[in-house]
Please model this.
Amino acid sequence: MTMSTRMQLVCPVGALLACFTVVMLTTGCDDKIERKIGAMTAKSVESQYKVLDDPLLSNWIDTAGHTLVGYSMRQSIPYVFKVLDTDLVNAFAAPYGHIYVTTGLLEFADSEDEVLGVIGHEIGHVVHRHSMSSVKRSFLYNIGLALLGGSSQSMADVAGIGLGLLSLKYSRNNEYEADDMGRKLSFAAMYDPRGNIDFFDKLMQKHEKKKPSSIEVMFRTHPATSDRIARQRAMPELSQGNATALLTAGRGYAQRYQLKRAEDLLAKAAQFSPNDPTTHLALADVQLARGQFAQATKTYETASTLRQGVYAAAGRELAAGSEPTFLATATPQQSARAGALLADATQASKQSGIVVSQAGLRAETIGTSLQPTVAGAHSIIDNLFGLSDLQPDISATSQSVVTYANGVVNQAVEPVYSVERQRENLLRDAETIRGSGAALADCLRAIQQGRAPAEDLAVIQRTLDESRRALDDIRAAITELERAGPAVKTAEQAARDATRYIDRIMRGDDTVSTLRFAQQAAQVTEARALAALAATQKAKKLSQRAAIRALVARINTAAIGTSAQTRENLDGLVAHFTLRPPRDVAQLRASGLGYGDAALVLATVKGTNTKPEELTSAGYGTLSMVDQVTAAGARTDGAQIIMKYLAHALEYETES
Model:
């Protein structure tokens, strides 16, 4: 490399920023170069962001990714799926099968179908070699050749090849192809292809209404335009009148123990394809699994008529079945206990209402005070995206200064994303606790009046206790967010100063004095960024604990009062998300845990040296399971994401 090189600043997919040598080549591209550039990308990304070390979530993402790859047209390369620990909402594909999703994106999604759609989209970019097509037209291809030939191994070039690829923009046709691939892969794997539409719909609405900086980069690099969404809605796999598509999605939900969703789709499929015995048979199987014997018998008879009596025997056997039963109603002692718990639930509901009101006001104050800071983060992103097309002649020294400055600017903007997300999550969790308290009170009244079984009184007690702890964590987290505000503001202000110097250098002003001031600005930014990150981490820890407590309460509450048949299905649903056999869920429930408690234990136990029964063997009756698994050294950030998807699915299954 010469001392004077042509540089291009690339913006972040995740505020990942760097400068690179630019020499445009027109030579061809092959797998060897793609493999090398992919490896450099992975090295660069993982040096900038921490890869989440959570056994369950990592395994879950890897399993989902490779399930989709199994239906793709490019299976000859080694795909790698990893989760980056950042509040930034993003996902991206590097060449040669390196695919990353952020915890911010996973928390933004509501269901596994949304996540599978996003991963399928990124696989589409790899399958069609979109990254490499863009690289061939850019400066990065030359760096790849230099690295491949061994003529350059500088850290700046290694960082450049990785970070630069993350900000390559795809053409509209590229995005259409990736959209199509994501839809087709989800459908082939029997996931609901509407998930990707739901995700981008939500992304678009959020951007239009609130414009949080945490989604700005993804919105720019993956524009959720209305025409893209409309185009996907028009595809046959998403047609509400396509019986084959409805049958496939319905069967997929059934395999994942989401039987109510399966029944809804299969019933529609039967309407659109009334003479197809296969559809009626699939619907009858789901009705039987849900304990709906009368409906299942009728549907089997329809299928039998359509296929000349093949299912008659099954129909007669079902006719002898019975509808789901519940345990006996409460004894006088249980009624008295329900009354005492009802008083507790009523008080807790009032308290949660107060916390929701106070949290809302305090969160609004935090949001108002940080509006200039959020606007500043947008300004930084806008500025850097605007600079991304520049290719000035700058020295190697200038390259080093800008690369360093870019890195610390990235660090300084991260706390802004964190505060935005924590603020929203705390309000969400306070509302969850209030809703859970009201539902528990209704259950307790029904038990008192003999309209519901008393088998769940112990779980209700545990849920009320966990809810109170969640409210305490919410209050403490908001206090820490208030304290973190000044540090976040000063870090963002320093980042704006550093960005201005980056702008000057990239526009050709790389005098000695400019470089000196840029270096100083970057050092100040780094110090303030580290202070802001430390300040927000205190709040984030409390926020995450409040979130996992709220999820335990939410899942416990949704399953209270359900029939034995429904609980057998819910055992399978929890097992699906925690990658455990259903019997493990049933055993934990038999020990007195609710579904939320059981899900938490199974979702975290893989990260400890303990077995599920060891976590629940001592003191669990009085100790929160969140506190219990934390004391055992388990991380709950991955469990929080998985349990959010579980809660979304389980609530749908149990709603009347």
